[in-house]
Design brief:
The protein contains 13 helices and 14 strands. The chain has helices at about 1-5, 15-20, 35-40, 45-50, 85-110, 125-130, 170-175, 245-255, 285-295, 310-315, 330-335, 340-345, 385-420, and strands at about 55-60, 75-80, 115, 140-145, 155-160, 180, 190-195, 205-210, 230-235, 260-265, 270-280, 305-310, 350-355, 375-380. The strands form 4 sheets. It has a 5-stranded antiparallel beta sheet. A 4-stranded antiparallel beta sheet has the order 10-11-9-12, with helices on one face. A 3-stranded antiparallel beta sheet has the order 8-14-13, with helices on one face.
């Protein structure tokens, strides 16, 4: 989309509004767009029919249904029966106006509001006013039904705006995952209270995070074997439709004791993405798990199968103690923070942070931790910059992996050169060159503890007559018996 939008041609491309409509309240608008277009019991469509003189007007593509030949299944579309071709454009304009109203509702009711979930059907607007009274009171409230939820009462959503925006943070802190209600006017329940989007600032900027293992790693060095400290795996394609988080925990515990299981959520919808981290207590258990998740041959691999790989987050947080013997944190952040400053500028971010449980965070404005693993978090003002943020991260990680691969290759060449100089014995250990000890009087040195040998001729005798004595010669004062000795 970004590539086509930036081109100078006349071709236009946008995100699919059909897809967004089909996602309902789970979509980026947080609204049941189809219901707002059609109306209760198709009342809006009937109004269009009456105003335009159509014979009939129907909506298709919902739940895989189609009102046409079948090629439109899965895509929201309208089918009309008319007598006058001019009615087509008239109806198109009327439907576009209804869609514009839905977009205005998002801007007016949803964007920048507080989102309350989990309250029962007995709650009315009066009950909501009671709940939010301690935080400055309500300025407006909009109730939306979540048709995807099958639990009674759990499908209602309230989009709340406070009279004082300064009370929003306090409301989230005090209400989220908290039991509220007085049991009389307001039925007691545990509610969820978050900003919309779920991760955002009061100035409208969105908090967007990417775990390092969510990025593609085409240049990740594969020749580095995992070390005994590698105990964490990044898993994908988790069977969320068939297993809840507790069942997933039990599945991984089949390989060994699990210290931590973190399931990653989507930025805007807070829905589980099917990705996560599982950390074992022992390296051998992690090895057993990754072997079970690795197909015996590439031909047997299915893109939808549960997959696992060694956690790059764990290796980065090991610093130079990782299997690369390379400090990736320094490369990512920069010794003086220049790496983050460059990322912020190139990705057009209002702010950027590297977060992890083991990293000391000095910035008080930093967003809260989402997990113990390494995550990049950006403060994004425009939706288009989310993709730019990810692209810059991918490029940075690719450059670092290339640098690591080059360094590993240099180490390999250096080791090979050292082996060539020293030679390699039959047992594979490098040879050590030992200098030969100097000979004494032409005789090779004797090993310690060898048998006694007679001294060489002339040993212990005076030097020949007339020869000069070397400096420091210990026998320089020797004289033959009777030669000038006293009493000789």
């Amino acid at each position: 989309v970004a590539a086509v939008r930036s081109s100078e041609g006349s071709q236009q491309i946008t995100w699919s509004e059909s897809e967004r409509a089909l996602r309902g309240t789970k979509g980026p608008y947080g609204l049941d767009l189809i219901k707002r277009l059609v109306g209760e019991a198709s009342s809006h469509l009937q109004e269009v029919v009456s105003a335009s003189g159509l014979s009939s007007l129907a909506i298709g593509g919902i739940g895989g249904s189609s009102t046409g030949s079948g090629t439109e299944a899965g895509h929201v579309h309208f089918v009309m029966r008319c007598e006058n071709p001019n009615q087509v454009e008239q109806v198109r304009g009327m439907l576009a106006a209804e869609l514009a109203k839905a977009h205005d509702s998002y801007k007016r009711e949803v964007h920048g509001s507080l989102v309350l979930r989990g309250f029962p059907a007995s709650w009315s607007e009066k009950g909501l006013k009671f709940v939010f009274a301690p935080f400055g009171g309500l300025a407006s409230v909009a109730l939306e039904e979540d048709r995807a939820s099958v639990e009674a009462g759990a499908g209602r959503i309230a989009y709340v705006r406070l009279r004082n925006d300064g009370g929003m943070e306090k409301a989230v802190t005090n209400l989220h995952q908290t039991k509220v209600g007085d049991g009389d006017l307001v039925e007691e329940c545990i509610v969820e209270c978050q900003r919309w989007p779920a991760r955002s600032w009061s100035d409208g900027c969105v908090r967007v995070g990417f775990f390092i293992d969510q990025l593609p790693m085409h240049r990740r060095p594969l020749e580095s074997e995992p070390g005994p400290e590698d105990r964490e795996l990044f898993v994908q394609n988790l069977p969320l439709a068939d297993m809840n988080p507790q069942q997933l925990q039990e599945y991984f515990e089949g390989f060994g004791e699990v210290e931590d299981l973190h399931l990653i959520k989507a930025t805007f919808t807070e829905e589980l993405t099917g990705e996560g981290y599982v950390r074992f207590k022992n390296h051998r258990d992690a090895v057993r798990c990754i072997e079970a998740l690795t197909p015996s041959s590439p031909q047997d691999a299915d893109p939808s199968d549960l997959m696992g790989s060694w956690s790059e987050s764990e290796r980065i947080l090991q610093r130079k103690g990782n299997c690369y013997r390379f400090n990736l944190i320094t490369e990512l952040v920069g010794m003086d923070g220049s790496g983050l400053a460059k990322l912020k500028q190139e990705a057009k971010l209002k702010g950027v942070w590297v977060l992890s449980e083991s990293l000391q965070q000095k910035d008080r404005a930093a967003p809260p931790l989402a997990a113990r693993q390494l995550q990049f978090v950006g403060k994004v003002s425009e939706e288009a910059n989310v993709k730019l943020f990810r692209e810059q991260l991918e490029r940075t990680l690719e450059d670092i992996h290339t640098k690591i691969a080059d360094r590993l290759e240099k180490r390999k060449r250096k080791a090979a050169a050292a082996a060539d100089v020293g030679g390699t014995p039959d047992n594979g250990a490098p040879r050590v060159a030992v200098a030969e000890a100097p000979r004494v009087n032409g005789q090779p040195p004797q090993p310690a503890g060898s048998a006694w040998m007679a001294p060489p001729p002339g040993w212990g005798q005076p030097p020949p007559p007339g020869s000069a004595l070397p400096t420091g010669y210990w026998g320089g004062g020797w004289q033959a018996p009777g030669a000038g000795a006293p009493g000789g």
